[in-house]
Give the backbone structure.
Amino acid sequence: SQQGEEDPQALSIQEGENATMNCSYKTSINNLQWYRQNSGRGLVHLILIRSNEREKHSGRLRVTLDTSKKSSSLLITASRAADTASYFCATDTGGFKTIFGAGTRLFVKA
Amino acid sequence: EPEVTQTPSHQVTQMGQEVILRCVPISNHLYFYWYRQILGQKVEFLVSFYNNEISEKSEIFDDQFSVERPDGSNFTLKIRSTKLEDSAMYFCASSPFAGVDNEQFFGPGTRLTVL
């Protein structure tokens, strides 16, 4: 598997439900970031969690990081139709290089 | 709010032609990046740039590619002789820091179509 792999690949939920996406990586990291991409558009930075942090919140987003398991999760609470997008995790391994995962496609039904 | 801009939004070119993709990073940022995303696939790192030189590049970034910061505001990606497989979205990004606080701000992308 590759650095920064998300699961599930696709997720379909009802508006109001929570969405959880997971990311696994292989090498040690400086930080891990989550991005959102609406179809055919650019990447929007959501949240950055440092390697020495375990949890971070931003609005309806909650990110956890478990460096012992080399994994992270992104939780979106009370999802909205506007949250429909692809979500990517990206890892910074300490060089000037950020590696993206393949992404989770989230579809929130109104 | 400051943002990264990219021009053109869509570039169509013939195979073998040279293209230059342009980016204006956020003005006080010091680190600059190019990524590409082939349709339906993941975002791939191409190159990072700091202090007027390449910091790191991927195996994708071969001799066909070059980057330049010709003045204090623009950051360009040149593809010397385009191939069909260069068709992709190209994203520029910039960040104020490197290391643990490396939050990157992305531009809207340039869609490159090679015919």
Summary: Chain B touches chain A at residues 31, 33, 35, 41-45, 48, 50, 55-56, 58, 91, 93, 98-109 (CB under 8 Å). Chain B has a mean pLDDT of 92. Residues 91 and 103 of chain B are 15 Å apart (CA to CA). Chain B has no helices and eleven strands.
